[in-house]
Specification:
Structural class: alpha/beta
Number of strands: 11
Oligomer: single chain
């Protein structure tokens, strides 16, 4: 690494060395993560890094410490304390599931569905809200909607409180199985990113998720569909006639997850949707 004036380091060398360290540790996007971490340390937008020629010694040391933790597969978002989701920034950290970019598609579907309700404010329920990502996006993009959200895990609920304060979202703590009895038959859109990983798939889960995300947000019975079956029953109770439900699932559940809904006979228009990589990602259905 080339040092500049007074022990400072060249920005390009710092990023290159960090990227090499992260790549050796198996981090999926080493250069991307290195740049994000350096921008975080310097307090500048990532796009402005090119304007930085040298990095002071103290900042370089702080950067090296973060790179070391990322090489241990601590989630990038835990190190920066924030993540972007659609058009909002969310606070995240230990104790809450870090929302993935793929879930933005499900949130987009929920937003479009809410916007399609005419003549009155749409009523939307976000089950298993986690960090509050979907509920926050709906409140942001459909400001006239009445948005409700629930999270069972106390630690995740605290993160959701932080992200949803001031948004008007009705956030509750509890199990989705018996949540929102006061809303039965009145909801237009139910949306959920439930746990969906089979217990037997433990070893195949990326270290960032397996070792740092709450297991309550990841694993759902032997086949990964236990929470999906609960969701089907809860959505059927909450929705008004012709109301819609959307739920994320694993890419290997493109047939199994929709079948949870179609097998009951009370849902119409059961469809599965693919993500930007062409993988099965979420299902939608309409209460018949």
């Amino acid at each position: 690494m080339t040092e500049g004036r007074s022990g400072s380091s060249r920005r390009g060398d710092l990023v290159a060395d960090a990227a090499a360290t992260l790549e050796a540790a198996g981090v999926p996007s080493p250069a991307n993560d290195a740049e994000i971490l350096l921008a975080h340390v310097l307090g500048v937008p990532r796009g402005n890094l090119l304007l930085v020629a040298e990095v002071a010694a103290a900042d370089a040391a702080a950067f090296a410490a973060l790179v070391s933790r990322r090489a241990e597969r601590v989630p990038l978002q835990h190190l920066t304390g924030t993540t972007g989701f659609r058009y909002v920034d969310l606070a995240v950290g230990p104790g809450v599931f870090t929302p993935r970019p793929e879930t933005e598609l499900l949130a987009g579907w929920a937003i479009e569905s809410a916007l399609g309700v005419e003549g009155r404010p749409p009523v939307v329920v976000d089950l298993c809200t986690g960090s509050g990502a979907i509920a926050r996006s709906i409140a942001d993009e459909v400001p006239h909607a009445r948005v409700h959200a629930v999270e069972v895990d106390p630690d995740a609920h605290r993160w959701a409180q932080q992200n949803l304060t001031g948004t008007g979202v009705d956030l509750r703590q509890g199990d989705m199985a018996d949540a929102f009895g006061d809303l039965d038959g009145t909801v237009d859109v139910v949306v959920c990113n439930p746990p969906y990983i089979p217990l037997e798939a433990w070893e195949s889960v990326a270290p960032e998720a397996r070792d740092h995300d709450p297991h309550l947000a990841l694993f759902s019975g032997d086949d990964g569909l236990t929470a999906m079956r609960v969701l089907e029953r809860v959505a059927g109770r909450l929705l008004r006639p012709a109301g819609v439900v959307g739920a994320e699932h694993a890419d290997l559940q493109g047939e199994l997850a929709p079948a949870v809904f179609s097998a009951t006979g009370r849902w119409a228009d059961v469809r599965d949707h693919r993500d930007l990589a062409g993988r099965p990602r979420y299902l939608t259905a309409r209460l018949g």
